[in-house]
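Backbone shape codes:
***
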Amino acid sequence: MDKQPAKFADLDGASVFITGGGSGIGATLTRGFLEQGAKVAFIGRSDHGEFVDEVERETGKRPLFIQGDVTDTPVLHDAIDRAEAAHGPLDVLVSNAANDQRTDPMEVTPEQWDELVAVNFRHFFFAAQRAARSMKGRGGSIINMSSISHVMGVPDLNVYAPANAGVSGMTRSLARAWGGDRIRVNAILPGMVLTEKQLEKWLSEDDIDQHVSQQALQERLYPEDMVGPVLFLASRASHGISAQSIVVDGGFIGGGI
């Protein structure tokens, strides 16, 4: 897909931190911010060294990759500390790391529940908490990547979907809590986005065709389709937007949430 057609001047030089920024939608967001001229740091559990080299060749800018587990809150906060030491106080936080593991609700253990909630919900709160400390008095944008799964009621996403519902509720609460400090908090709710992981593990051609046929825009969605909405929310172009959950699903759920 071509580069984003819009250029947001205020993102040039902005300090951006992304959780899960080395694969899937997160990697596309890292690339998108770099193309805007932002200074990007991201955390991921796996080794994303090859991606860092690749995106530097493509954009001429090298992101700061910090390997670590977002569910370990001290590690997560330390990663943001390191990002700020390299790039200055945060202007933008994108919480994106997630695990949409399919589960049988009769087989979920308390340990599995806690593990999935930690990556899909808890880390969003503690990343936002740390970012808000830097943004207080300066302003900034916090963007939580959620999902339409909790609106659809997908039966085998019975841990992931409730966590996503929590992210949407938390987004509204934190926006109210920090609005006086000019910190905007919003969520993006993607629909069926065809990442490599989704195509390898979960989705057949029949699944995709059936879903797309129910969208208002009957086109397949890819990670690149999430970049424009996230850049817009990160930029001061969306100055008056906070406490919102913006659905980017091709019109699948119709009336929104």
Q: What stands out?
A: The longest strand covers residues 183-190. Residues 9-247 form a domain with the Rossmann fold fold (CATH 3.40.50.720). DSSP finds nine helices and seven strands in the chain. The chain has a mean pLDDT of 95.
